[in-house]
Amino acid sequence: MRSILLIAAASMLIGNVDLPDAVRRMLDAAYASGNEGEVATLVKYARAAAPDAADAIASEADAWRAKRREAQQAALADASIIELWKGRAELGGFVSSGNSDVTGLAAIVDVTREGVRWRNKVRVQADYQESDGRVSRERYLFAFEPNYKIDDRAYLYGAAQAESDPFLGYDSRFSASAGGGYGAIRSPAVTLDLELGPAFRQTDFTDDRSETSLAARGRMDLGWKLTPAITLRQDASAYLQQMNSTVASTTALNARLFGPLSAQLSYAVQYESMPTEGRRSTDTTSRASLVYSF
Q1: CA distances, 204 to each of 83, 177, 240, 278 (Å)
Q2: pLDDT for residue 120 is more than 80
Q3: Looking at CB atoms within 10 Å, which of 153, 197, 245, 250 has the fewest?
Q4: Residues 44-88: pLDDT tens digits?
Q5: Interacting residues of 204 by C-beta distance below 8 A, sequence separation 6+
Q6: What residue segments make up the domains of the chain, in order of their start?
Q7: How would residue 181 be classed by pLDDT, with cut points 50, 70 and 90?
């Protein structure tokens, strides 16, 4: 509520440029919406409709953006640690019977908190499947990543991840990493984040072996808004080391249905360079699920 009031107050500080009534009302409505994309579009047409006031309109829009950023920063600074969390919950499942009995459930929760200097990300994932009474897939993951923002694009990251996937050959694996990240692309339609840094990994394999080693970690997170309702995401990460290296990639196509609900199709690939005996190097998962954004 405080952030809404601050942004509304910022909007009230503009409107000093003398313009035709229709143009003035159009701009005021755009400022009140709080949508920077709409403001940019209407400012463009307002400058064309009132060329004598074009520079003044541009200055007014810049002042609105500056006041809006100040209001947002003040709201972030005043928020408590339990506020400002946003994210998505993904759920997919199936049951089949007849010639074979198969039951499966997949759930993912991703949440992010954006602060003035800190961004915190948490991810929880669970995949479970039974075929004819026997477990045929079992994967669990918990990841936490704090980011310290250096500027609008560059940041320092920390990453801790615990996971278990007996069908890929390990009962437990813990990974910790720290390094640098950069927002290579920042546009209304496309975003691209890149991360690189050293990592430490400890793995307990299903054949009773244990492995502890240093690794290099790289990550790419791409978001591409194809239409207002359809988004393509590509998330890829790699841990490269002398022993067992891991490369994982998830491609997801998300289509908004209504309100906070959307449907998603995804394809995930995970590669282990030195799997335990009897295990394949590559594991793939195709999934259809419902996603709730909050």
Answers
A1: 37, 18, 17, 16
A2: yes
A3: 153
A4: 888 888 888 888 888 888 888 888 888 777 777 777 778 889 999
A5: 170, 171, 172, 173, 210
A6: 2-78, 85-293
A7: very high
